[in-house]
Amino acid sequence: MSVELDVVPEADLLPEDVRALTEWYGERFWAERPPFTCRILARSGAEIVGHLGIGTRVIAAGDQDIQVGGIGGVRTRESWRGKGIATLLLRRAQETMRDDLALPFGFMTCRPEIAPVYLRLGWQEVAGPTVVGAGDEAKEYAGLSLILALGDVAWPEGPIDLRGRSW
């Protein structure tokens, strides 16, 4: 069965998509993450079989402010795993961040055991440390921080402050 990818601005999510994502991720998904700028939905017919969100924000890296596309909520339905859905989503995210959002970098945090999926698609680990959250909720992230260069700008060395929650 074929899969189509839709890039949907957050404000344009259809009520049936919100219901489907809530059933899949749970109510906490909406409360625990910052809003996305857009979502990439992989559909087979009417069914959402994969999802990825892109949130834009200025973060601190070293002594610089950098606009990034934060990647979050990457997921493929269990029955569709192993069929390249995550790869399709991540490649479309790269195109969207570079061509439509004109961002210099993609950014994500992830657990070490899932990093190989991203690393084989060109993402690179950066040292950090990375602080997530803001104010009293700020803490150092224990997992990996990954970037995807979308142009010719070099990633600055030094600590990273997401200035909010991770995506």
Structural descriptors:
single chain; 167 residues; alpha+beta; Aminopeptidase; ten-stranded mixed beta sheet; 10 strands
Structural commentary:
The chain has 167 residues and is of the alpha+beta class. The protein has one domain (4-161): Aminopeptidase, CATH 3.40.630. Helices cover 22% and strands 38% of the residues. The chain has four helices and ten strands, in the order βααβββαβαβββββ. The protein has helices spanning 15-25, 28-32, 85-100, 115-119, and strands spanning 4-9, 38-44, 47-61, 64-76, 105-110, 124-126, 130-132, 139-140, 144-149, 160-161. Strands 1, 2, 3, 4, 5, 6, 7, 8, 9 and 10 form a ten-stranded mixed β-sheet that branches. The longest helix has 16 residues, at 85-100. The model has no long low-confidence stretch (mean pLDDT 94).
Number of H- or I-type helical stretches: 4
What is the level 1 CATH name?
A: Alpha Beta
Radius of gyration over alpha carbons?
16 Å
- Percentage of β-strand residues: 35-45%
Low-pLDDT segments, ≥5 res: none
Give the overall average pLDDT. Answer: 94
CATH topology: Aminopeptidase
Q: How many E strands?
A: 10
Total number of domains: 1
Structural class estimated from helices and strands: alpha+beta
| First-to-last CA distance | 30 Å
- The rough form would be described as globular
Order of helices and strands: EHHEEEHEHEEEEE
Spell out the blueprint of helices and strands.
Elements: E1 4-9, H1 15-25, H2 28-32, E2 38-44, E3 47-61, E4 64-76, H3 85-100, E5 105-110, H4 115-119, E6 124-126, E7 130-132, E8 139-140, E9 144-149, E10 160-161
Parallel strand pairs: 4-5, 7-10
Antiparallel strand pairs: 1-2, 2-3, 3-4, 3-10, 5-9, 6-9, 7-8
